[in-house]
Specification:
336 residues; alpha/beta; 7-stranded mixed β-sheet; 6-stranded parallel β-sheet; globular
Amino acid sequence: MQALVCTSPGNFEYETLPDPVPAKGHSIVKINRIGVCGTDLHAFEGTQPYFEYPRILGHELAASFVEGDAEGFETGDRLTIIPYLNCGSCIACRNGKPNCCVRIKVCGVHCDGGMTTFYSVPSYTLLHADGLDDDALALTEPLSIGAHAIRRAAVQHGEFVLVIGAGPIGLGIMEFAHIAGATVIAMDISENRLNFCKTHPGITYCINPAKENAIEKITAITAGDMPTVVLDATGSLRAINEGFQYMAHGGRFVLVGLQKENISFSHPEFHKREGTLMSSRNATKEDFSYVMDCIKKKRINPTDYITHRVAFNNVKKEFPHWLNPDNGVIKAMIEI
């Protein structure tokens, strides 16, 4: 089989590897689509935490069943994969939180991912396509991260929700905040991405903190209340640290993006707000099912996010260009 291996930061190599062989508890699938996410881009540029090289990237996957012991699957069945491999026995797994398993392995991060023609994964990770096409299946995982973040924040109808970062994860967060009945405020330093927010998720309030006074604008939008929920989808240390000042008294600040360094904030300011600080990591099967249901009901159109397409054999050539913000990449989709 063919695989695209990230051998070191900034370097990809196509390699011919042995085809996977059947194993108990595992299934072999043929990969059809691979969505490129921020994790893949960060790994390529050498800024992804908890990462080792060489590594086969890719965890936003659409595939077809080849063989294995996954219950209810037959050869040719289309599917997607929950790419978070959990132990099933740690405190998080026992409490229904396999998304933050103590010994979690995320495909394409802690173990090899799906940028390959065939892929062997634990059978419990497979989800039936349930009528979704390959593009939608590959985008179910990143959208599930957004859905999980909104569920984690317990967003209520009528709340003001500020989403910092208008990349694919941030856009997904906005979509599900809107579905929950919130009034969404988008913040990004890219005018291109803010314009995308206005036309696709249909966000009315968009703020560029590099060009305008964010505090003044948010204050005006919320009639002085400030957002009761702030979610960071950038992973930027500066954006995270500045995000605390946007939170309402009694509000929640949810860290979805990942930052290597220590964050810092004024404890008196945070304390007087009786703020809640939480993280949101990955997603659960419940989130995947919810996202797939929303797609089927046309409450969300994931293909709106696909701005670039490329054949598998051209990824090595095209991938470096996706790091340049001027190229306007929202979601790149690899076709096999």
